Amino acid sequence: xxxxxxxxxxxxxxxxxxxxxxxxxxxxxxxxxxxxxxxxxxxxxxxxxxxxxxxxxxxxxxxxxxxxxxxxxxxxxxxxxxxxxxxxxxxxxxxxxxxxxxxxxxxxxx
Length: 110
Hints:
The chain is an all-alpha fold.
């Protein structure tokens, strides 16, 4: 394998791993539900995206053709993660979960 491809795959996998680690730490360490929601939806999505991008480069190089499986996985991930985070936040607001004073925004009341 070409060393440039190996470096590119390694860099994307490492960047993806770092983002996933930061997102996981944020999920475990942040104080309330609303701030914890950012960990898996932002950083971990980028982490998985980096790993999938490394996989896309690797398998496209091996097969000498663009692998659409990874493209579809990435597209599905980047579409569904924000939608699921939005639905979780709306459900938490409707259940009046406790939040920190510093958390901005007020739930809408009718």
